[in-house]
Amino acid sequence: MDTNASPRLVARTTCATWGKSLPFPSAQLVSATFLPEARTICIISAGGDIATGTIDDEATVSELEIVGSVESGIECAEWSPDHDVLVLAAGDGNILLMTKDYEIIYEAPLRTAEKGEDQSVNVGWGSKETQFHGSLGKTAAAASAEQATAAARGGSSPDDDGRARVSWRGDGAFFVVSSLDPHAVPPQTAEPYTHARRVLRVYDRSGRLQNTSEPVPGLEQGLAWKPSGSVIVSSQRFGFLGGGQGLQNRHDVVFFERNGLRHGEFGLREYWVPKPDTKRQWSYRVKEFAWNADSTVLAVWIERDDGDAVQLWTTGNWHWYLKQEIPAPSPEDGSTPRFTAMAWHPEQPLRIVTTSPAHVDDYCFMWDTCTSTRGPPEDTGTVAVVDGAALLMTPFRLQVRPPPESSYKIVRPPPRIDPPIHVSQAPNADAIICLFPNARVELWWLQTAKSVPRIPGDPDIAEPSLIWKGEIPGDLVARQALLWNSDDVSDEWFIALLGIPVDGKHDVVSVTTWRAGEITEDYEVTMPSIGRGRMFFLDGCKLAWEGVDGEVARVDFENEVATPLVTLPEYCPRVQSVARSAESWVICGLSETGKLHMVSANEAKATLSTGCTSFAAGAGFLVFTTTSHTVTCIPLAELLGYLESVEAAPTMPNWDARRTERGARLVIIVPSTMSVILQAPRGNLETVHPRPMVLSVVKDDIEEGDYRKALLDCRRHRIDLNILYDHEPRGFMSRLWSFVDQIEEVDYINLFLTDIGKSPRPAEKTSEICDALRSELEKKDVEKYINSILTTHMVKTPPDVETSLALLLRLRETNPNLVEEAVKYIIFLADPDALFDAALGMYDFSLALLISQHSPKKDPREYLPFLKQLKEAGEEFGDGYRRFKIDDHLKRYKKALQGLHDAGKHPTFSGPKVFDEALTYTDKHRLHHEALEIWVGKTENVQAILNLYGEHLFERREFKQAALAFVQASKPQRAIIAYEKAHAWQELFALAVKEGSSFDELLQMGQRVGEDLASRKRYNEAGRVLLDYAKNVEEAITAFAQGGDFPEADRQVRSVCALNSRMDLVETILYPEALEVRYQIGEDATELKEQLEKQTERLKELKVKKASDPDGFYNPDGERGANLQDVDVMTDAGSTVAGTAFTRYTVAPSSGTKKSKYASKNSKKRARKTGRKGTVEEEEYILLSIGKMPARLEAIQVRAAKLLPYLLQYTGEHREEGKELQRNLKELEAKLRSAIEEVWLDEDEDEAPVLRAVSGTRLPPPRQSLPRKPEMTTPGAAITEWEVKLL
């Protein structure tokens, strides 16, 4: 009840004309509506007068003025939701529609035989008469026809007041009128009579009849159209002449669709005693209905013999719950309590106003979830749902039963049907308290079971018992009750009530101590404000209070004082505290606007969400749902840490969130099951297990050494079992014995090992874990854990298949049945073919046969002949040859070669035949090194293998290596050929001389080798060979000269001339070769000079073009036109359409496919390499080319440095040619230096200049930055000085 402001009388007026002779009191008001746009109040009387009065700024009403009258009187009136249209049901049976200026826009008879424009036509499809009725047959169809006939005969309820009702749909497009229509029953019926019955008619906004309801016997006057527009509500009586067929005490709230058809119902739960001697058969009647603003609560005004009451009903999962009952206040004169009106607030959905002859009561309700907040391991997760006189109880730790189902019920016996005002559960005991009017309370001990019963609904799931019920003394009008148990005395309970004294102006918290059936102590604490305050537990069982302004105070009831603590940013109807310790706590509150606030003990504040719909704290986490249909789970440690640092780091962390069903609300957190219960808007439940919550519990179990519980939780919630090791690696390895003792199920250990094998950790660490666990399993019971032991081998990387099979071989002698089962298991761990090959590689045919028999992939027609063939080979040629065949099949060629070597010891398969096959096998599989190791010590065999190896190398053109092999194999002639092919002339002539080659052979060999070396431009080596071995002085000197080694050439010529008197060699060979080399160097310098001139000139042209026409420079192909104004930079066709001048050469990557990126990249590389004229890459290509010129010039100068001294010494012609060559090279060097300085200006080398287009548009630089400026080093750095100063 809202009592923030005292009511006051703002106006009183009378109208003398309200005294007409009508069948009902003419002065009775049928409507009183405030019109906000005109700031007037419209009052309509049953006598037919329509009066208005203006409300001024001081909230006073002027004298009423009658603006119109209806002579026949007015039965009912209702304004449209937008206050533009007024509907009147006149006393003469007409319906009138008026504008807001009270002008009639429509008038027509209310009671008409027409059904409406949208009336449905029944052609019999889907009706009861045409449906299949199973074993009931045609009798069911006949019964349906009789029911339809009875409905047509039905009349109105005896409780009907006879007056019409009007109700608008929430959007103002339609309205419905309920009226009594005269109805004559045919005389051939068993009980002919004339009676009236209720009919609903739906009209549109202009007054056109749309639909008429189907006949409903016993339909009553109550009428209300749901604001959302889905259904129209009324009531129906049963069990009287002309009423519905049913029990006499049946009374339903019925629903209609806009087309007039029925759409469900629910029954009222009134308890009454028949009164056959009175005019009124029942002790109550339904007077009116009213929907709240958001269509979630239906108010039912019930008029009982002993007093009126307004019941508030809600629905979920197609069930209607009676949540609250508001009794009429008792008059001071002792008369029967009655209401005179009820109305919901138009904007606040849970606010309702009732009036009585002496009271105006304003009630403001809030949704509250009655949940158990006990911590583990005592938590039950019990949720209580109020449904009239029953509490639907469900402990979600044990069962998840969606409402209206429940695990058990706490039902109050009749005649009590009123629901409790408030229900809450004790935070430290399995108990619940129910608060009723007049401060009456009931304490229930729930005694919930700790384990799930075998049968759902087993009464042993809980055994609730009533502890005490009674009335708390005092004059407190209580609205909230809390209960907790004493920590010192088990049978001592504390009951806290929050309310307002009858004549008080502040909230009062009353705490009562109950022990052994009687109240022992009573405390009262006056709070700072009054109104919508709430109580909650601060830390454990410490009582706290929140006021209407968000202020929070601790209630010290023993000293009867309230100590202010903190202040929330605004009033929060839903408040819960989260405590780390007695001094460190946080208060979380959910405001009416959906903001989730939290404030700490040191006044640090933060808003976690601005669109929160529900929240709860438990299991070390804060969980809340949002309007974006997500559920967020925050560890309390992180939450408290964020709150402490919110001022320094206001950015909220990215906490775990998951999508959920639209509109879902949080019901409860169950710590023991690591679950969060969510409820969808339609009422069904969803259980989720947030991963952070599950991981937190699993980690706690691991730290405590409870590996079984941790493994079962991981298995249940599909968590990688690697966490058992990864969370505490050292602890797990030290407690492996405990792990094995706790996990008795072999399958669970296998599951753990499988996850270990799939982990990304190093293979060595995986092997270490598996070996340690296998050691513990072998200590305990090898036969029991044989599958797990095999798994430890198979999950390694790579799998240790042979060790696994070796274990089976050891166990085969003692327990063959166990081995057979183990083989069936190991086949599912590894590829059967790999297992078969491994067994075969162990040379155990029986094991290979066993694996093949249990393998689904092996065909007996294939493996049986194969095994038989291997067995026969061993019997004929020995075990060595059988191993050779097996290893060759397994592609273990080295072992196969060893087996072939061992097969030579068998008497039937020895001698050259074995070695010949070994040589063939060695050459086929390139096993030359292995063969040398196997046949070491056998000279003849080794030489044969070396010769084979040399031929192999010779074929691969590894001539030098082949020559070495031939030398070791005593094949000198093949080695000489190989050396000659390898151009290893030193080794060649050394071996030839060693083998005693003749002089002529050496001369021929030297000539061949020298010419070959010269052809490969190895001139110096060629000269030495020709001079030393071929004795060809002329060709040797020519080779030296061609190689640029003029010092050696000149020395050799001088020596030959002196020894052999061949002075003609200087003029015939040396002088011409010097000039020839000079001309070659000159040509290279000229070519370099011409290239430099062309490229520098082209760079100047490109620079001018870049400055004058940047669009043409960067877009040489003219793609997408020259009009840059029309470029769409947001196009999504980047993968198929060429880029614009803005985007084509930027650093940003293209939006094309991966293939197109590579293709584009390669094409640009090719363009840069070719330097095609006119491309964007041309400038970069030229700069790269000029950057390489200094190195080319240096190479030319190095060659010239060896030649110039001898040009100076030779003839005058040579001297002149030397001067010209030196001058040309110096000019080229100067020109190159000048070009480099000109091309690379004194700009920042790391930034390309930014160009501007003619239109002023800023263009990006090319895709690649300009090459760096080259460094001009001193040419010929390897020699002292390349120039000859005498020249």
Automatic annotation (TrEMBL):
Superkingdom of the source species: Eukaryota
Q: Where is the ELP1 N-terminal second beta-propeller domain?
A: 385-667
List each copy of the ELP1 TPR domain by range.
881-1051
**Localization:** Cytoplasm; Nucleus
Q: Which UniProt keywords apply?
A: Coiled coil, Cytoplasm, Nucleus, tRNA processing
What cellular-component terms does GO give this entry?
A: cytosol; elongator holoenzyme complex; nucleus
Domain named ELP1 first N-terminal beta-propeller: residues: 25-347
* Residue ranges with Basic residues bias: 1154-1172
Q: Which GO terms describe its biological process?
A: tRNA wobble base 5-methoxycarbonylmethyl-2-thiouridinylation
Q: What is its main location?
A: cytoplasm
All residue ranges annotated as the ELP1 three-helical bundle domain in the record: 1064-1239
SUPFAM superfamilies given in the database record: Tricorn protease domain 2, WD40 repeat-like
The parts of the chain that form a coiled coil are 1082-1109, 1211-1245
Q: Name one GO molecular function term.
A: tRNA binding
| Start and end residues of each ELP1 alpha-solenoid domain | 691-757, 762-870
Q: In which pathway does it act?
A: tRNA modification; 5-methoxycarbonylmethyl-2-thiouridine-tRNA biosynthesis
Disordered: annotated segments: 1150-1172, 1251-1274
Quote the function comment for this protein: Component of the elongator complex which is required for multiple tRNA modifications, including mcm5U (5-methoxycarbonylmethyl uridine), mcm5s2U (5-methoxycarbonylmethyl-2-thiouridine), and ncm5U (5-carbamoylmethyl uridine). The elongator complex catalyzes formation of carboxymethyluridine in the wobble base at position 34 in tRNAs.
**PANTHER family, A to Z:** ELONGATOR COMPLEX PROTEIN 1 (PTHR12747)
The similarity comment for this entry is: Belongs to the ELP1/IKA1 family.
Name assigned to this protein: Elongator complex protein 1
**What organism is listed for this UniProt entry?**
Tulasnella calospora MUT 4182
